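Example 5.3 — Acetyltransferase
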Amino acid sequence: MKSEKEKMLFGELYNALDPELSQERLRARLLLKQLNDSREDQTEERINILKELIPNAGEELWIQPPFYCDYGSNLYLGDKVFFNFNCVVLDVMPVTIGSRTLMGPNVQLYTATHPMHYRERASGLESAKPITIGEDVWLGGSVVVCPGVNIGSRSVIGAGSVVTKDIPADVFAAGNPCRVIRSLENQESD
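Solution (predicted structure tokens):
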């Protein structure tokens, strides 16, 4: 029989109030409190907190507090990933982000989802779908990425966009819902 954590990580309906999951979220919340209360000149302390919170991060991770996530352990980050102020990552399932990817302020990445049918939703069960973001991507301020979305490498997502479907590599996309505006392939530097 699968544990609630196993169900969660396999994208099945699971009980988020399970004691093991609750304990893991508490651990993350306590580390986030330390991170978010730290001062700008406490660089070494922040690095140590982030290593404990997000063990699957590459080199030179920079997160500008405040930052919020569910677990931290389900974040898989390449080198030199940057999160600006007030980002939220609901990492119920894996969130994979490639190297040199930049998140503007208030970016929100949601893997968590709830059943559409009210009776099933009322049961308290939920599920999730993973998010994958390629290398060298830039998400502008207040972008929301919905469960199950993949964003290709080198793409730029305009501020305020709600990304509900996959976005290919090498494009500028924006809007609600987010859609491809133009190609970025073979363009000179701005």
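Remark. The chain has a mean pLDDT of 96.
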